[in-house]
Amino acid sequence: MISYHHTLTVIDNDSPAQFALHKALQLAKKTKSKVTALKIEHPYGSLLTRLGLIPNNALDPMLFVKKLLAKYQRQGVEVEIKNIDKTKEHIALIKETKAGDYDLIVINNQHRNAIMNEFIPSCEAHLLRECAHPIMIVGNKRWQKNGHILTALETSDSHIEHSKLNQCLLDDSQQLASLLDNDIHLVNCYQNENWSMSVEKKKDSLTDEEQKQQHWARLLNSAKDYHLTDAHLHLEQGLPDHVIPSIAQLCDANLLVIGAGEHQGLISDLKGHTSSAIVDELKCDILAIKPQLH
Question: What is the pLDDT of residues 85-126, one digit of tens each?
Fold first, then answer.
């Protein structure tokens, strides 16, 4: 499970909202951990100001940052601000993780256009591919008390390492649920074996209903140690980039917990375009956990 000793986050230079910083501080207060926030000077920030894309009279977000930090420092949260010279956000974050002992990265969900992501990957996409740390991608939705955490599992693969990752996703979900006073829902999506193009169906092929029952049994088995009722288990046929956002909205989830960076199964679909599509479409926050951590 994530230790929650030291969280790395960023200061948003363009907005007073500071979603990533605020939620990193909320977690730090609950876990008695330290927060390091990077104030990154963007490479083209001064150019955008000169072009008039950032008004000279715009409110300085640091005014809000200082007020937010003072609030949590009075409550005992240890905070360190690091100023970073002109560089890209994902490069600064990855470099800092290599220099310090961090447990978690918290960043803003930029909700980039899908077409733009094809040509210029977002900070989230870079970190999902290149960073080994757990990554929490957050937006403007507040964490509701007595809300829900949705955990996406892959049950079609019985490989032991994959089963271990599922177990760790569940353990991390339970830990977060306790911190946020939430409950847990599980989601699994699957694809039926496609034999429609075959001349004849194989004798040992399962029917659609048999395949569904097989996945349901595996989902029940994953949930048995966590005392979850059937109402908290969601099984849908379809692709993850369609099913997961739909179930997250249905549950009104505070946060989605998901594995990232595997080489097969559901998570293999969460690479490149599909990963960006889910990040952009979800209204809730995301905690992406890498298998190598466990």
Answer: 889 999 999 999 999 999 999 999 987 666 666 667 888 888
HEC string for the chain:
CCCCCEEEEECCCCCCCCHHHHHHHHHHHHHCCEEEEEEECCCCHHHHHHCCCCCCCCCCHHHHHHHHHHHHHHCCCEEEEEEECCCCHHHHHHHHHHHCCCCEEEEECCCCCHHHHHHCCCHHHHHHHHCCCCEEEECCCCCCCCCEEEEECCCCCCCHHHHHHHHHHHHHHHHHHHHHCCEEEEEEEECCCCCCCCCCCCCCCCCHHHHHHHHHHHHHHHHHHHCCCHHHEEEEECCHHHHHHHHHHHHCCCEEEEECCCCCCHHHHCCCHHHHHHHHHCCCEEEEECHHHC
Q: What is the pLDDT of residue 108?
A: 94
pLDDT, tens only, 130-184: 999 999 999 999 999 999 999 999 877 666 667 788 888 999 999 999 999 999 9
- Which residues contact residue 63 at a Cβ distance below 8 angstroms, ignoring those fewer than 6 apart? 16
pTM for the predicted model, two decimal places: 0.86
- Report the mean per-residue pLDDT for the chain: 84
Distance of alpha carbon 37 from alpha carbon 8, whole angstroms: 6
Q: Which pLDDT belongs to residue 154?
A: 83
Q: At residue 159, what are phi and psi to the nearest 5 degrees?
A: -60, 140
**pLDDT (tens digit per residue) in 208-221:** 888 899 999 999 99
CA–CA distance, 50 with 36 (Å, rounded to integer): 30
Q: Which residue has the tokens 């800092």?
A: 96
**What angle, 0 to 180 degrees and rounded to 10, lies between the N-to-C axes of helices 160-180 and 19-31?**
90
